[in-house]
Amino acid sequence: MSGFPKILESTQDLSKGQISTLISMAKSLKEGQNTPFFFDQDKRPFLATLFLENSTRTKTSFAIAAQKLGAHYIDFDVSTSSLKKGESLEETLLTLKYQGVNACVIRTPNSGELAQFKKDPPLCIINGGDGTNQHPTQALLDLFTLYELGLDPQGKTFAIIGDIAHSRVASSLVDLLTRFGGKIVFCGPKECLPKSVSGPVMLTESLDEALELCDVIYTLRIQKERHTGPTPYYDSYHKLYGLNLQKMQGLKKAPVILHPGPVNIGVELSKDLVRSPFYKGYEQVINSIYMRMAIISATLGN
């Protein structure tokens, strides 16, 4: 893709046109219209995942996506690497570069850590989530999922419910949804809400108000590992902000529910709701493969 950034740190690194192209690419891949991009055994690229935080969905889907494209996949084991001996992330990436790695998906607990590579990236870098800052590939696959469900964001209201203040997903998702014409309602305990908002975004601590306004629900888990203080609201969270099948069936609208995972069943969502047609989280999992195939392909210049 022309002009695709060598380092995808943020959704803001992409133009609206590039985002639309990624969605079209992902759709073509999902429908089987595109064959793998890399056939020449001597020119197959190497993609590594370097995760400094735990992951199920993001890491596995990138691994599957890379191999579906015909790329070599390297699962970089941080726990046995020289990062544990004090080697810097930059030196590690330079080593991978000179070993022939073409692209690296990085997850880090440190917000903004990948910005240091923006000016002169040692190799292609895809942000797999950095602290509370950004998770661009999650937001892109969420946008793709909405279109696959027939839900154009234009003119629709999205209730994002949960720990927004500590969510990297929310930052990326709001950027995409508002650029494509959506309106946002942030809902949760006051400790989980940002102190201020701008643009087509409103804040509420009332779950009923958020549900009344929205066309789509996007739930987030409470990220206890990112809170510096106590979380006294956690034990009562499901009662105050959790969703169950009975509550959903009582709404005038029938909004779909998305969740980036992992879901804490019995906290943000009940088990019966996760197993119901309202919940589209597994559609996100399916679509993650094809969007990440598109991102890898665009990153590597195909």
Quickly list its features:
alpha/beta, Rossmann fold, 2 domains, five-stranded parallel sheet, 34% helix
Fold and architecture overview:
By secondary structure, the chain is α/β, with parallel strands linked by helices. The protein folds into 2 domains: 7-134 and 285-299, Aspartate/ornithine carbamoyltransferase (Rossmann fold, 3-Layer(aba) Sandwich), CATH 3.40.50.1370; 150-279, Rossmann fold (3-Layer(aba) Sandwich), CATH 3.40.50.1370. Helices cover 34% and strands 16% of the residues. The protein has helices spanning 16-30, 57-68, 89-98, 136-148, 168-179, 207-213, 237-241, 245-249, 271-274, 281-299; strands spanning 7-8, 46-51, 72-76, 103-108, 124-130, 157-161, 183-187, 201-204, 216-219, 256-258. The strands form 2 sheets. The protein has a 5-stranded parallel β-sheet. A 5-stranded parallel β-sheet has the order 8-7-6-9-10, sandwiched between helices. Strand 6, helix 5 (168-179) and strand 7 (183-187) form a beta-alpha-beta unit. The longest helix is centred in the C-terminal third of the chain and has 19 residues, at 281-299. The radius of gyration is 19 Å and the shape is globular. It starts with 6 loop residues before the first strand and ends with a helix. The relative contact order is 0.16.
